[in-house]
Design goal:
Elements lengths: L14 H9 L8 E6 L4 E7 L1 H4 L9 H7 L4 E3 L3 H15 L7
Parallel strand pairs: 1-3
Antiparallel strand pairs: 1-2
GO biological process, one term: SOS response
Keywords: Nucleotidyltransferase, Plasmid, Transferase
Organism: Paenibacillus larvae subsp. larvae
């Protein structure tokens, strides 16, 4: 019996922003981006949640422009180690269903 190879892709919507919202329930119903330095209004948007996208905020947009579009925007600095940890939890749980390779 031959094995059929299946390619599996899991796209987690606005992953960094989703991790931040899961970690901080107080941001649940607020527009949120993961971006550079909110105090200096510098850097770019790495991820925007769907509520932020409703204001026209896009990935790679300058943070200052995003803050102008949405004065109540929650800006969270990136925490790459946390995103890697959560990503590994997701893919680790998936190995029950497939053989990585």
């Amino acid at each position: 019996m031959s094995k059929q190879r299946v390619i599996f892709l899991a796209d987690c919507q606005s992953f960094y922003a989703s991790v931040e919202k899961a970690t901080h329930p107080e941001y649940r119903n607020r527009p949120l981006v993961v971006a550079g330095d909110p105090a200096r209004r510098s850097g770019i948007v790495l991820a925007a949640c769907p509520l932020a996208k409703k204001y026209g905020i896009t990935t790679a947009e300058r943070l200052g422009e995003a803050m102008n579009k949405c004065p109540d925007l929650v800006v969270v600095r990136p925490r790459m180690q946390e995103y890697i940890k959560v990503s590994l939890q997701i893919t680790g749980n998936s190995t029950v269903f497939y053989e990585p390779g």
